[in-house]
Design brief:
It is a single chain. The protein has 236 residues and is of the alpha/beta class. It has a single domain, classed as TIM Barrel (Alpha-Beta Barrel). Helices cover 44% and strands 17% of the residues. Strand 1, helix 2 and strand 2 form a beta-alpha-beta unit. Helix 2 runs parallel beside helix 4.
């Protein structure tokens, strides 16, 4: 189960992926979802649209929590500069790719109260994708090795598939775990290859889940968000 000593309300454990290209559509989703969602992930699509920080400020003005999913990956000084800048905006979470220890340590030293999450293996990747990159071993072995590196470098948590949670929890029990690729009832036919349902995610140690398409594509997105919160409550 998720950690008993982390007193996180069920509603805050649901992070909605605000994958839109501009501020206008972001605000439409904020209005549509209302108080059903309190935690939003804003990522690269919105960044390239040019209104990223406008949306960030709007979320803060509405009292929402923010996960800046930018997957930072560069030389240590550059990543540290980006992390330091984001920390000044009151962001709760920010992602960095789990790469060189020097980069992870540099980011950790300037994060302030913002919590950094290391991206271990993207949920769209499976073993064949890793083998094509020259990575040896299973996906789970790779996730655990990278998670341990992140922890040693002062990173607060990891983004990982729910499928890898159980062994990861045993190897690094103190890391925060944020799990994307969540579906209301198991795997779906889209580009996410390693997905789990809500109950499986929390029963194996998730702290937070990220949900996008199942809410966005629902006939009633707000009702679907509430359904996810209810599933989280029952899973806890």
């Amino acid at each position: 189960m998720a950690h008993a000593n982390r007193n996180i309300p069920a509603r805050e454990r649901l992070i909605f992926a605000l994958d839109v290209p501009d501020r206008a559509r972001a605000i439409e989703w904020m209005d549509r979802l209302g108080d059903a969602v309190t935690f939003y992930k804003i990522g690269l699509e919105l960044l390239s649209g040019g209104e990223y920080f406008d949306v960030l400020r709007e979320l803060k003005n509405r009292g929402k929590k923010i996960f800046a999913d930018l997957k930072l990956h560069d030389i240590p000084a550059t990543v540290a500069g980006a992390v330091k800048g984001l920390a000044g905006y009151g962001v709760e979470f920010c992602t960095v790719h789990c790469d060189a220890a020097a980069m992870l340590r540099a980011a950790s030293e300037v994060k302030g109260t913002m919590r950094l999450l290391a991206v271990t293996v993207l949920t769209s990747n499976d073993r064949s994708d890793l083998e094509a990159l020259g990575v040896q071993g299973s996906v789970t072995d790779t996730v655990i090795a990278r998670a341990k590196l992140a922890q040693d470098c002062g990173i607060d948590g990891v983004v990982c598939s729910g499928a890898d949670l159980s062994p990861l929890r045993k190897a690094a029990p103190d890391l925060l775990t944020v799990c994307p690729g969540i579906r209301p009832s198991g795997p779906a036919n889209d580009d996410q290859k390693r997905v789990v349902d809500v109950r499986t995610a929390f029963s194996t140690g998730a702290d937070y889940i990220v949900v996008g398409r199942p809410i966005r594509q629902a006939a009633d997105p707000r009702a679907m968000a509430e359904e996810f919160v209810g599933q989280i409550e029952s899973a806890m």
